[in-house]
Recover the amino acids of this structure.
């Protein structure tokens, strides 16, 4: 198969490209977003559209979901395969996830239960994976110092997303709001198996974040999947689809 791989430099991309090639597939990559983090959705649209117009592919692939790529693939009638490896991925709240040319794979079964109803035939569960041989080679070639420093009963590789936490970017912190949110987060940490935050984040709190944060995740009008006052609405980062 011939695969068009849209990249943004996810830690997962290299392993997946290697796996595709080991299975005998040809992979062409669009790498612009690796080197330019200010790529707009309009540019992404042009990059993917031009490639699909000039060349023939069996499907388009990306780590995480790009609504604009989904729309382009819907027009070209080519499958768009995306593997969700983060949570939350706010782009999943776009109506584009309902497109019939999508094949969306979610690593989190809870996310699957939230989103599968919006495209039940084409949203699936797929756990995370990695190139074990590659990671094992790092261990085999590690120095004695590194082995002692990094050997633990439990290890975590990844980001805690603390640098993306919108809470630290609030311009105005009222004592009431800070107390409410701090208490809510502390309570959530003590309860396993029940997600309280979605139910406790009211429209008023969403509006408070909107007023007091410069960076906002904005969907185009009528393009948001749900108006539920979800915590996803206040984990904000700039984006425009068109």
């Amino acid at each position: 198969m011939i695969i068009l791989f849209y990249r943004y430099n996810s830690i997962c991309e290299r392993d997946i490209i290697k796996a595709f090639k080991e299975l005998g597939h040809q992979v062409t990559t669009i790498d612009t977003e690796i080197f330019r983090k200010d790529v707009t959705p309009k540019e992404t649209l042009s990059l993917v559209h031009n490639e699909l117009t000039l060349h023939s592919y069996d499907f388009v692939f990306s780590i995480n979901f790009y609504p604009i790529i989904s729309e382009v693939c819907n027009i070209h009638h080519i499958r768009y395969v995306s593997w969700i490896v983060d949570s939350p991925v706010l782009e999943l709240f776009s109506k584009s996830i309902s497109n019939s040319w999508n094949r969306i794979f979610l690593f989190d079964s809870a996310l699957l239960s939230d989103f599968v109803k919006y495209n039940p035939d084409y949203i699936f569960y797929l756990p995370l994976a990695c190139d074990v041989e590659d990671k094992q080679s790092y261990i085999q070639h590690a120095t004695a110092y590194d082995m002692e420093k990094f050997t633990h009963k439990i290890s975590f590789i990844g980001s805690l997303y603390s640098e993306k936490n919108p809470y630290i970017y609030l311009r105005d912190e009222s004592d009431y709001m800070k107390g409410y949110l701090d208490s809510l987060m502390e309570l959530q940490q003590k309860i396993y198996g029940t997600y309280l935050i979605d139910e406790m984040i009211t429209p008023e709190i969403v509006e408070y974040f909107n007023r007091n944060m410069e960076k906002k995740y904005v969907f185009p009008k009528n393009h948001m999947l749900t108006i539920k006052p979800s915590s996803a609405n206040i984990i904000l980062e700039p984006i425009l689809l068109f």
